[in-house]
């Protein structure tokens, strides 16, 4: 369990994290979502004691990170996968990590196996692909068999196979009852990975909710309709819902069910070439909710 209360971090005049309160439950994958510069990395650094909050508090299993007796047995964090000595083998990197943190050396081969790196354990980490480096980084977080895991942008730059592997691995860790907190600005990825979301913009909390609920609440369902008689259809829909025109000329109808549009068209002899309900995407939900708080809006 991770709990932040009124968490705030200032760097000079920049307020990187602003009065942020949220909680991350065990047994689930919780996505930490926000555009670049929203304050995700700063928040994660405060969770693991690398940065001190200017105000507020964040606890792991009820305690400040710095007060934990065996931090790596409680929290594993991967904030930068390239943090590996390039000339060390994967195994010796993990052995060094285990030794310097008072963790049993016997755990090294277990975690190599868990992440599927046993066969390349003697290879120099500097020769690893990004996907393999991520696996090695994840192996490092698991050395202390911690209950809480933090991953900062773990799928950045990975190919689809690497992304799938990470996604499945996160689920496995959550199924084991661990708390899994994973940040990303890749919204569609989070929609598939996370069961719960903590969404921030400009350091502030925008939403804490289940992923499905977030999408449902933040996006208004719409129906795309193409017809050779668009103006006639538009007139029929007048007063029933809002009708926009897409770039390709299709009508985008808000507030009317697709079945009702189909029946209305049939009853009035209007031909339809397309009638497709548009499911709200996480991207739409996110844009809707962060409209005012996204940094890049101001600079566009
Ligand atoms: N050490 C620092 N000194 C000064 N400003 C900082 C520092 N670290 C972060 N910031 C600023 O704090 C804000 C939040 O940055 P942070 O890296 O936490 O965001 P993020 O959501 O992780 O973004 P990204 O996805 O780009 O990593 C940004 O405006 C950033 O420039």
Automatic annotation (TrEMBL):
| Superkingdom of origin | Bacteria
Tell me the Pfam families matching this sequence.
ABC_tran (PF00005)
State the PROSITE patterns in the record. Answer: ABC_TRANSPORTER_1 (PS00211), ABC_TRANSPORTER_2 (PS50893)
Residue stretches making up the ABC transporter domain? 2-227
**Alphabetic keyword roster:** ATP-binding, Nucleotide-binding, Transport
Q: Does the keyword Nucleotide-binding apply?
A: yes
> Does the keyword section mention RNA-binding?
no
Q: Which CDD domains match?
A: ABC_BcrA_bacitracin_resist
Which terms in the Gene Ontology molecular function aspect does this entry carry?
ATP binding
Query: What family classification does the UniProt entry report for this protein?
Result: Belongs to the ABC transporter superfamily.
Official protein name in the record: ABC transporter ATP-binding protein
Say which species the protein is native to: Saccharothrix xinjiangensis
Q: What is the lineage of its organism?
A: Bacteria, Bacillati, Actinomycetota, Actinomycetes, Pseudonocardiales
């Amino acid at each position: 369990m991770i709990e932040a209360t009124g968490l705030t971090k200032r760097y000079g005049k920049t307020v990187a994290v602003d009065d942020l309160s949220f909680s991350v439950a065990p047994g689930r994958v919780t996505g930490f979502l926000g555009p670049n510069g929203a304050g995700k990395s700063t928040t994660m650094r405060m969770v693991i004691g690398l940065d001190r909050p200017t105000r507020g508090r964040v606890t792991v299993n009820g305690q400040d990170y710095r007060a934990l007796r065996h931090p790596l047995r409680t929290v594993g964090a991967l904030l930068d996968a390239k943090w590996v000595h390039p000339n060390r083998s994967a195994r010796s990197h993990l052995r060094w990590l285990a030794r310097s943190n008072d963790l049993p050396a016997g755990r090294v081969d277990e975690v190599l196996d868990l992440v599927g790196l046993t066969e390349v354990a003697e290879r120099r980490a500097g020769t690893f692909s990004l996907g393999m480096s991520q696996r090695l980084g994840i192996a490092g977080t698991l050395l202390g068999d911690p209950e809480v895991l933090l991953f900062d942008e773990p799928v950045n730059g990975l190919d689809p196979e690497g992304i799938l592997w990470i996604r499945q691995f996160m689920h496995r860790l959550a199924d084991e009852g661990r708390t899994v907190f994973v940040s990303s600005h890749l919204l569609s990825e989070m929609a598939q990975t996370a069961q719960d979301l903590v969404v921030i913009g400009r350091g502030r909390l925008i939403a804490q909710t289940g992923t499905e609920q977030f999408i449902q609440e933040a996006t208004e369902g719409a129906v795309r309709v193409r017809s050779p008689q668009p103006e006639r259809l538009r007139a029929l829909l007048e007063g029933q819902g809002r009708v926009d025109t897409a770039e390709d000329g299709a009508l985008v109808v808000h507030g009317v069910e697709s079945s009702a549009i189909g029946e209305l068209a049939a009853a009035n002899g209007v031909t339809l070439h397309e009638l497709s309900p548009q499911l709200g995407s996480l991207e739409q939900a996110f844009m809707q909710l962060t409209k005012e708080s996204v940094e890049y809006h101001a600079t566009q």
